[in-house]
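ESCALATION

Customer reports they have been waiting on this structure for their group meeting. Please prioritize. Original submission:
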Amino acid sequence: MIGSLCDRLGGGDIAAPDVHYDFLTQQEQTVANILGAILKNFVGRGDTPEYLRGAFQEGKGKVGGRELRTPDLMGMLRNTIASAPRVFICIDALDECLPNHLPEFLELLGNILCESPRA
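Update from on-call: job pushed to the front of the queue and completed.
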């Protein structure tokens, strides 16, 4: 899916992180976890930007090493998208998303599209 998209659109200057919802792990696929998976796909493309490394280190230093929360992840995702020439976020099996997570996830994706003309 991603390879075909990049081929059709000219390849090189496209960031296309993808995530796949899975029926068997629905309980673990929270909005924050999916946003984290999208970020992980961006980071997997090359060097980790300093602001991402710093944010993750800061999160580990909090009481109990708390995980990053949705607003933290959204901020990092906004910064990451802003640094990419063109972005396509591909979500596979969205119908496997838990119904109580879906409205928030779709709202956040809508916010990304409104705020990021490159997405």
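Sent to customer with the following note: Residues 32 and 69 are 6 Å apart (CA to CA).
Escalation resolved.
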